[in-house]
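Problem: given the chain below (477 residues), write out its structure.
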Amino acid sequence: MKKVLFAASESDPFIKTGGLGDISYSLSKYLNEEGVETSVVIPKYKLIPEEILEDFKLIKTFNVPIGWRNQYCGILTHQIDGIRFFLIDNEYYFKREGIYGYFDEAERFAFFDRAVIMMLKEIDYKPDILHCNDWQTGMIPVILKKEYYQDPFYSGIKTLFSIHNLLYQGIFSREVLTELLNLPIELYNEGSVEFYGGVSFMKGGMTFADKISTVSKTYAEEIQTPYYGEKLDGLLRWRKDDLVGIENGIDYNFYNPETDKFIYENYGVNSIDRKVKNKIKLQKEFGLSINANVPMFSMVTRLVRQKGLDLLISIMDKLIQMNIQIVILGSGDKIYEEHFSNLKIYYPNKVTTLIKFDNELAHKIYAASDIFLMPSLSEPCGLGQMIALKYGTIPVVRETGGLKDSVIPYNKFTGEGTGFSFSYYNAQDLLYVIENALQLYYDRKNWKKLMIRAMSADNSWKKSAKEYIKLYDILCN
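Solution.
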């Protein structure tokens, strides 16, 4: 049985700020179910709820060298849902009010990366594969290959580095190499971690890992181009034979309208007519005009430019004139929060804007709405469109990253497809596909067929886990 250690900066059910937290937990759970012994290691943050920590046991303490200092490290462990979790404890670095955004990020995650490697020998746990995720773990493959290659304990351990979003690279001054990581300055001089005068943790992981993965096949292709490559496209093209795109999945134990405890009315493929009851109850709850036949659009998203909000704003006047309703849930940049909040004031019967993140409410919106908007400028994978599909809420997406991979465009001649898409980042193209979607919406017979195809699509973690197992097999052979 293969052993995999999943190293990440966050994980459900402890703490998460985005998709990485979901992936750390869900992928590990499904890998275990498929026969891969998968464990997870994250920092022990102050914000982890005490009730979750109650059953964890301290199994080892040791010191981790960070520059000229030796810093305390404690290892706590417990098993949850079949996954063995390890927590890296150091209150100086992780007992804080947040988990990211501090002035000493380089030092915090330099400590974490070295602690993960040292932990293996300290507790006599040797995985076949160290699966590292995003820049916060980028120096694990570097340290492992540059410092521990002569230690027999570490021989044979392979590394996989997963890019979840290339935009965030962990770039710091070049002094971190010698002053924090205890690595030779030659790594900077030869260019293997150097990034425009600084040191990139992301580049380190991409350069030294045995294989690289990212979160969709299309994103793996996109990031090899200058437009999406964030100045690392040259390195990615150089390593293209070691780069694999594997689409994320969603956990149907949590996202399933037949069993979802958060939604107003449960329904499934064989009881799809009950879905409309969710719309009516959401309309009542938020003061929208009560009408079962009006098409309801929704967005559950971070309110940032990356999500294509500029396109939506450009056509909003035309949309408002149509016989539709729009529900928006999310928070982000002030300019977008204010714009959509004002729409709610001006059109209270047609627009609901909720500036927050609320998981239970998100489920209700997925179940209640008819059409889900994701006109993203870029989207490495995206989860919203997959959730929408499962709930029979037809996605309208731009063909980028995982959106292109997971939404099959509707073909009016063959009747095939699971949603609507457009390729160019253009407001008129978005309006055009929305109008096409609305035209089909009023063809109730064919719309229902489209909903059933959407709900029947397989975007499960089980499917994704099997793809990772294939990659693990290649790594170990």
